[in-house]
Automatic annotation (TrEMBL):
It holds the Pfam family TPR_SYVN1_N. It is found in: Endoplasmic reticulum membrane. This is RING-type E3 ubiquitin transferase. Its main location: endoplasmic reticulum. Residues 303-323 are annotated as: Disordered. Residues 291-351 form the RING-type domain. It is a multi-pass membrane protein.
Length: 353
C-alpha cells in the first residue's frame, strides 16, 4: 500500500512538471532545458526514476526469487543502510564530481548489491533445505549468469576507464563492481558444491573443506583489491575512511582462516596414531555412549581386536577406513572418527568445551 501511494504521488508530480514545462515553453528544446536547469524539476524526475527502478526490482524479484523470506528482508534492510552510509562517506572524496551520472551509477550499484545479497542468502538456504524444485535451480542459474555478465562488464568498464582517462569517481565504482564479482564467484562455487552434495547418495564429508578454501581464496582476492583501492585513493585523493573498516575486517578474516587451516592440518595429521581407538571399556565407563556431534550411538571393536597392532598403519582417507570408529581425545571425550574430523574443519578444540 505504501509503495502504491508513493508511486501515485511520484507519477502525479512527474507528469505535472513535464506538462508544465511543455505548455509554458515554445518548443521541445526549451522545455528540456528548463527541466534540466530547475533543481525542483530534477528532484521530482529523479524521484520518478527511483520509483521506476523499484518497480523493475520488484518484477525481477518475482522472476528470480519469488516471495522473500523474513530473514532475507531483514538482511536487506541491514545491508542497505550500511551500503548507503558507506557510499555517502565515499561521496565526500568525489564531491567535486557529484552529478547526475554519479547518481545513476550509485543507484545501479545499490540495485545490483541487493540481488547479490539475495542470491547469497538463497545459496546458504540450500544447505538448510537441500531438496528444491527444478524451478529453483533454473532461477538461480539464470540469475547467476546475468549477474556474472553484468559484474564482469561493469568492473572491466570501470577499470578500463581509469586506465584510459586517469583517476576519477570511476575508481570507486570499478572497485565496488570488482568486489561484487569476487563475491559472485564465491556464491557460484558454493552453489556448485551444494548441488554436488545434494546429488550424492551419502553425506559429503569433504564439502566443508572445499567451502573453506573458496572463502580463503576469495578473502585473499578481496584483500588485494581493497589494498589496491586504498593505496590509489591515498595517492590521488585523501584517506578513504569509508573502507578502513572493510580492509581491517577482510585482513582479520583472511589471517584467521590461515590460522584455522594450519591448526586443522596439524590436528588431522595422522589422526589414527594421534587419537587412539575407543575400547568397549571406554564407552561403558562413560555416562553416555552417544556421539554429541551426530547424536548416534558409538560401538567399539572388541578388546582383542583393538589391542592388537595392525599389520600396516591405516590410511586416514583410505577406501577401507572405518569412519564410524570411535576416537578418544586426550581430554577423555569420545566421538566418531568422521564426526571428529568434520568438527576439526570448523573448530580446533574439543566439541564439549
Amino acid at each position: 500500500m505504501r509503495l502504491a501511494i508513493y508511486g501515485a504521488v511520484s507519477t502525479t508530480l512527474a507528469c505535472w512538471v513535464v506538462f508544465s514545462a511543455f505548455t509554458q515553453r515554445v518548443n521541445y528544446y526549451a522545455a528540456c532545458v528548463h527541466l534540466a536547469k530547475s533543481n525542483v524539476c530534477m528532484m521530482i524526475l529523479l524521484n520518478m526514476g527511483l520509483y521506476i527502478a523499484i518497480i523493475i526490482g520488484k518484477a525481477m524479484q518475482a522472476i528470480f526469487f519469488g516471495p522473500l523470506r523474513a530473514i532475507e528482508v531483514e538482511h536487506l534492510y541491514e545491508r542497505s543502510w550500511y551500503a548507503i552510509s558507506e557510499t555517502c562517506l565515499a561521496m565526500t572524496i568525489f564531491r567535486d564530481e557529484f552529478n547526475l551520472h554519479f547518481v545513476v551509477l550509485f543507484t545501479t550499484l545499490l540495485f545490483l548489491k541487493i540481488f547479490h545479497w539475495l542470491c547469497q542468502d538463497r545459496v546458504e538456504f540450500m544447505e538448510q533445505a537441500p531438496a528444491h524444485r527444478l524451478t529453483f535451480h533454473l532461477r538461480m542459474l539464470h540469475l547467476m549468469s546475468v549477474l556474472f555478465i553484468v559484474d564482469y562488464y561493469l568492473a572491466s568498464t570501470g577499470i578500463l576507464s581509469i586506465w584510459e582517462h586517469g583517476p576519477s569517481m570511476m575508481i570507486m565504482f570499478g572497485f565496488e563492481y570488482t568486489i561484487m564479482f569476487l563475491t559472485l564467484l564465491s556464491i557460484i562455487g558454493k552453489y556448485i558444491l551444494n548441488v554436488i552434495d545434494w546429488q550424492s547418495e551419502e553425506p559429503w564429508e569433504g564439502k566443508s573443506m572445499y567451502v573453506f578454501y573458496i572463502d580463503l581464496v576469495v578473502d585473499f582476492l578481496k584483500l588485494v583489491t581493497y589494498v589496491t583501492f586504498f593505496v590509489i585513493i591515498c595517492i590521488y585523493y585523501q584517506l578513504p575512511l569509508h573502507i578502513v573498516r572493510d580492509v581491517y575486517v577482510t585482513f582479520r578474516s583472511f589471517i584467521q582462516k590461515c590460522r584455522d587451516l594450519y591448526r586443522y592440518r596439524r590436528a588431522t595429521r595422522n589422526m589414527d596414531q594421534l587419537y587412539p581407538n575407543a575400547t568397549v571399556e571406554d564407552l561403558s565407563g562413560t555416562n553416555d555412549s552417544t556421539c554429541i556431534i551426530c547424536r548416534e550411538d558409538m560401538h567399539a571393536n572388541p578388546p582383542d581386536i583393538t589391542s592388537s597392532p595392525p599389520q600396516q598403519p591405516p590410511q586416514q582417507d583410505g577406501p577401507h577406513h572405518n569412519y564410524d570408529q570411535p576416537k578418544k581425545l586426550p581430554c577423555g571425550h569420545i566421538f566418531h572418527f568422521h564426526c571428529l574430523r568434520s568438527w576439526l574443519e570448523r573448530q580446533q578444540t574439543c566439541p564439549t568445551w
